[in-house]
Amino acid sequence: MKGALNLGKVFRIDIKIHWTFFLIFVWVVLVELQQGGGLDSILFNAAFILLIFLCVVLHELGHALMARRFGVVTKKITLLPIGGVASLEKIPEEPYQELLVAIAGPLVNVFIATLLYFTLPVSDVMELQLPEMLEELNQLSLGNFLFYLFLANVALVVFNLIPAFPMDGGRVLRALLAMYVGRVKATAIAAGIGQFIAIIFLFLGLFYNIFLIFIALFVFIGAYGENKMVQHRALLKGHKVHEAMLTKITYLHPDDSMKKVLEHVLSGTERDFVVMSDGKALGILPYDLIMEPSRDKETLVKDIMVKDFKSLSKDAPLGDVLGMMESGKSRFFPVTNENQELVGAIDLTNLNEFILLQSRLQF
Ligand code: ZN
After folding, report:
1. Reduced to 3 states, what is the DSSP secondary structure of residue 363?
2. How far apart are CA 98 and CA 67, in angstroms?
3. What DSSP state is assigned to residue 19?
4. d(Cα 61, Cα 68) in Å, to the nearest integer?
5. pLDDT, tens digit, for every residue of 210-247?
6. What contacts 297, CB < 8 A, 6 or more positions away?
7. Are 253 and 275 in contact (CB under 8 A)?
8. Residues 68 and 74 sit within 8 Å (Cβ to Cβ)
9. Distance 184 CA to ligand 1 centre (A)
10. What dihedral angle (degrees, nearest 10) is formed by the CA atoms of 351, 357, 361, 363?
11. In what helix (H) or strand (E) does residue 55 lie, and over which residues does it extend?
């Protein structure tokens, strides 16, 4: 995500904070000033927000560390005004693993809330009569600070467990359904429910709280995207790279000039190229590199090609390739046979074409 400030690493995971997060502080100061609050109440609220977001980071670490037990790497946790996002490399496909990863986040907040409940103790506040309670809660004391933090953690648990896939509760729902009807159907049902709840969020957001509108969009788009991805993966199951790869492609020579490369780009529909010499792939030349504005026509391919690239075996599973392309590292891979000889290449356009054909064959 662009515009995120790095706060450091915890358990080898980058903790980042998006710049829009600071808008919350601006908003708090404005609201406080409008209500005639002084510096003390502004600081009280600002410190409170910082601590809530510390709880959110711990929540995300709960997901990430549980995922790590199942061999899933989390590169970063990003804090946004609408909450935290742990960027898991993938979601475990075993339902019980997804269930544990999804529930681990809210459980962290259950733990924090329980701890606060007994240290305060919350029951003392609850025993007060309503007018006294309101009077008491209006004061800027440490006790109230912790009481509000307790409420915030309870709210985090309740909110996250709303079954709006891909929120935590929705993931729990998908995992439970997947145990009975399989992952593809479970995802379709959970995504449908998620999108329905997103529409309710949207309406509530219009009248009550603008953050709900952002969450509605996040849920709606997330549910659509993940449902599509799971369907696509299912269509690719059992298929191998050689079934979808491009075989009629133009190979570049390391000593070709950019003038020649541009002729290839203009005369055909290929965008990315494999650089080959003596039947071996030496590098790849992606479209972005070819089209760089400062590119000199006399530059040689070997001077700008990407030498650090990954080749795929023609017998590799296509489902894995889709995952690699969607994770964004590269969308173009040379393909080799068992003797490491180049036999073609595969890109996202072609893979999507293959998915489309498979979906036609199914219905
Ligand atoms: Zn969560």
Report:
1. coil
2. 8
3. G
4. 10
5. 888 988 998 899 899 889 888 888 888 888 988 888 88
6. 257, 258, 259, 262
7. yes
8. yes
9. 22
10. 100
11. helix 39-69
CA 143 to chain CA centroid, nearest Å:
37
DSSP-derived secondary structure for 87-101: EESS--SSHHHHHHH
Give yes or no for a contact between 140 and 43, defined as CB atoms under 8 angstroms apart.
no
Classify residue 27 by burial, with Cβ atoms within 10 Å: 0-12, 13-18, 19+: middle
Q: Residue 86 phi/psi, 5° resolution?
A: -95, 120
Is residue 60 part of the annotated active site? The answer reads yes
> How is residue 138 written in tokens?
């209006």
21-52 tens-digit pLDDT: 788 888 888 888 888 777 888 888 888 888 98
Give the pLDDT of residue 83.
78
Burial of residue 271 (number of CB atoms within 10 Å: 0-12, 13-18, 19+)? middle
Residue 175 Cα to ligand 1 middle (Å): 15
CA of 279 to the centre of ligand 1 (A): 49
Report the predicted TM-score, pTM, of the whole model to 2 decimal places.
0.77
Residue type at position 141:
S
Q: How far apart are CA 90 and CA 285, in angstroms?
A: 28
Q: How many Å lie between the centroid of ligand 1 and the Cα of residue 160?
A: 6
**Phi, psi angle pair for 68, to nearest 5°:** -60, -35
Distance 109 CA to ligand 1 centre (A): 10
Among residues 32, 60, 98, 226, the one annotated as catalytic is 60
- On whether the CB atoms of residues 145 and 44 are closer than 8 A, the answer is yes
**How far apart, in whole angstroms, are the C-alpha atoms of residue 309 and residue 331?**
11
Q: Could you tell me the CATH superfamily of domain 241-361?
A: CBS-domain (3.10.580.10)
CA atoms of 49 and 36, how far apart (whole Å): 19
Tokens of 105: 């986040």
Full DSSP string of 301-312:
HHHHSB-S---E
- DSSP 8-state symbol, 21: G
Q: Are 156 and 56 in contact (CB under 8 A)?
A: yes
Question: What are the extents of the domains in the chain?
Answer: 1-161, 165-236, 241-361
